């Protein structure tokens, strides 16, 4: 369970960046943590950091609990979702629990397989979440909701308890009419990569 502080934090409270990279990447042929020699992982970390997130937390799973084996830089916090095989929600819960142990009052969620989403997009969505009463914002690419998603701490417990299987935060977020959608298709495609480029043609 995520423990949420009783006091109301300032709207400009710190934001933790969560890189969700626990899956085995079955369709891709390898864990996406290792894709392109780790370039996707490094890109996600850089986008979150340069977009205003601290700390950045990488949620590991299929590659095991050793950050070095996954190619995670030494200066990045990691958490291992031991139950990663049960679905995306396992890594989301692990990430939220890790964020709750920091001073963060927002999280910016980024999957590892959207490598062209950069810091400009992260900063834009984070600013929108901080300005919104709901504290909820997500990127939109060509009318399609994507990542990052930024979530104020007041929603974490509800997401933690409702997440199941591969739904992640989807069930909870789809129920919210107060989500702010932020157009980002001028800076990225937002495409996630489920299969290698050579087989996607």
TrEMBL record:
Coiled coil: none annotated. Residues 17-176 form the MobA-like NTP transferase domain. GO terms for molecular function: nucleotidyltransferase activity. InterPro entries: MobA-like_NTP_Trfase, Nucleotide-diphossugar_trans. PANTHER family: MOLYBDENUM COFACTOR CYTIDYLYLTRANSFERASE. This is Nicotine blue oxidoreductase. It comes from Nocardia puris.
């Amino acid at each position: 369970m995520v423990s949420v502080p009783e006091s109301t934090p300032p709207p400009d409270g710190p934001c933790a960046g969560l890189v969700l990279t626990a899956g085995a990447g079955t369709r891709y042929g390898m864990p996406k943590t290792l894709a392109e020699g780790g370039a996707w992982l490094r890109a996600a970390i850089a986008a979150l950091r340069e977009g205003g997130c601290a700390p950045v937390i990488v949620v590991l799973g299929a590659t095991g609990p050793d950050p070095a084996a996954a190619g995670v830089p030494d200066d990045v916090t990691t958490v291992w979702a031991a139950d990663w095989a049960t679905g995306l929600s396992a890594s989301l819960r692990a990430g939220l629990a890790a964020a709750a142990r920091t001073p963060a009052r927002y999280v910016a969620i980024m999957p590892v397989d959207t490598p062209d989403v950069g810091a400009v997009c992260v900063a834009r969505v984070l600013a929108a979440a901080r300005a919104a009463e709901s504290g909820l914002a997500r990127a939109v690419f060509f009318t399609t909701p994507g990542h990052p998603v930024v979530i104020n701490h007041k929603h974490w417990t509800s997401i933690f308890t409702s997440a199941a299987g591969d739904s992640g935060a989807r069930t909870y977020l789809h129920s919210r009419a107060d989500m702010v959608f932020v157009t980002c298709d001028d800076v990225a495609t937002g495409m996630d990569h489920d299969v290698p480029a050579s087989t996607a043609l």
